[in-house]
Specification:
The protein has 311 residues and is an alpha/beta fold. 23% of the residues lie in helices and 26% in strands.
Length: 311
């Protein structure tokens, strides 16, 4: 199969588009013919990208990209609820090879039926981002109807789902974004959009029930002060994973696969309650350009199989 591989630690400049062995599904796994794979540039700074679960360096070559949409090409032993030919989307093991390839392997529990109302390109940008928003807002932050939520990076890959899910939940949604994206974020369901380049959000926002942070750094540090007593903050900024601040360590989380939640997300997409946002599309061979592209709305996606835009 064709794949994008890294033969040593590095960035997009080190990507090699080349032939690679086609993986085989093991027990409880499925082989997916990848139609589209989303791009998450921060994957290059994730700990699991370069180490094993026990902390040892991973063996090269490695394949990045853990968010995909495609069709089941084969199933391993003890797989009963996924069949060959099923259109699926999902995410796979951070510590294993990803989906920047014509085929990838995932545990059957890591994939769900692809939403029927969107193509593979839109489906591929959904699993990691939508599950992150779901688990951060509905799980960790316990967002409830009537809450006031502040979403940092509201036009980004995760932010677009956070805004929509918060709106669906019945919250009042305030998003930070550039002025260029203000109308777009309003269109996602935000009640108010703050131009982070022109206004310090803490000067005009107070009494927030939930802060959902995708930015980190100074933005995160300044966010504690806008919370009401008992307010909750969650962050996915990889830069804060090892923070010395116990509040920040407690606020940080990494998304996990969850088929049940992904099924709910599929239902919401097909009911037009959630809308995936594709920033732009590159062919697999141009993965370097895709990783270097500065996305402004939603996520970048790589087309892989012929007919990747098909339902």
């Amino acid at each position: 199969m064709k794949a994008i591989r890294l033969h040593g630690r590095g960035g997009p400049e080190a990507f090699a588009y080349e032939e690679a062995p086609q993986p085989r599904p093991g027990e409880g796994e499925v082989l997916v013919r990848v139609h589209a794979a989303a791009v998450t540039p921060t994957e290059l700074v994730w700990v699991p990208t370069w180490t094993t679960p026990t902390g040892e360096p991973r063996r090269f070559p490695i394949i990045l990209g853990h968010e995909f949409s495609g069709a089941v090409a084969a199933v391993g032993d003890r797989v009963k609820d996924v069949a060959v030919g099923n259109p699926v989307y999902g995410l796979n093991d951070w510590f294993g090879d990803g989906a920047l390839a014509e085929y990838c392997v995932a545990r059957a529990a890591e994939v769900a039926p692809k939403p029927r109302s969107v193509d593979h390109l839109a489906a591929a940008v959904t699993p990691i981002s939508a599950l992150t928003a779901w688990q951060g807002l509905l799980g960790r932050a316990r967002l409830a109807a009537g809450d006031r939520v502040l979403v940092h990076g509201a036009a980004g890959g995760v932010g677009v789902f956070a805004v929509q899910l918060a709106r669906w939940r019945g919250a009042t949604v305030i998003g930070t974004a550039s002025a260029h994206n203000a109308a777009f974020v309003h269109g996602l369901g935000a009640d108010e959009v703050i131009d982070y380049r022109a206004v310090r959000f803490e000067d005009i926002v107070h009494g927030i029930d939930v802060v959902f942070d995708t930015v980190g750094g100074e933005t995160l540090d300044r966010s504690w002060g806008v919370l009401k007593p008992g307010g909750r903050l969650v962050t996915i900024a990889a830069s804060v994973e090892g923070s010395p601040d116990p509040r920040t360590r407690e606020a940080f989380f990494i998304v996990r696969p969850d088929r049940g939640q992904l099924n709910e997300i599929t239902r919401l997409i097909d009911a037009a309650q959630l809308r995936p946002v594709v920033d732009c599309v590159f062919p697999l061979a141009q993965a370097r350009q895709a990783f270097e592209h500065k996305s402004t709305r939603g996520k970048v996606v790589l087309s892989v199989a012929d007919g990747e835009g098909a339902q």
